[in-house]
Write a structure and sequence with these properties.
87 residues, alpha+beta, two-stranded parallel sheet, 2 strands, 39% helix, 11% strand, elongated
Length: 87
């Protein structure tokens, strides 16, 4: 599944672009983000508790946290190491 990738956005293919975009992001807002996300209904229908999900390009881990809080096993990875360290 392709979620979002901003390669064509100015700077969207660089680590610095994403680190700047996600600066100050926190996992505490993950449930709020997940609850209003348009993909939530799809995830809730298809991804059941106990399933395993790998999210490549997870950024501030909003889907990781949102799915994990619903009993889904989730691994998030991103090329922005600073963003992952901040969350």
């Amino acid at each position: 599944m392709l979620k979002m990738f901003q390669r064509d956005a100015p700077g969207g293919g660089s680590v610095a672009f994403w680190e700047d975009s996600w600066q100050g992001a926190d996992v505490a807002s993950a449930d709020e983000f997940y609850d209003i996300d348009p993909l939530k209904r799809w995830f809730d229908r298809v991804v059941r508790p106990g399933a395993m999900v790998l999210e490549g390009g997870c950024g501030p881990a909003r889907y990781v946290a949102g799915l994990a809080s619903r009993g889904v096993g989730v691994v998030g990875m991103d090329f922005s190491i600073r963003t992952l360290q901040d969350v």
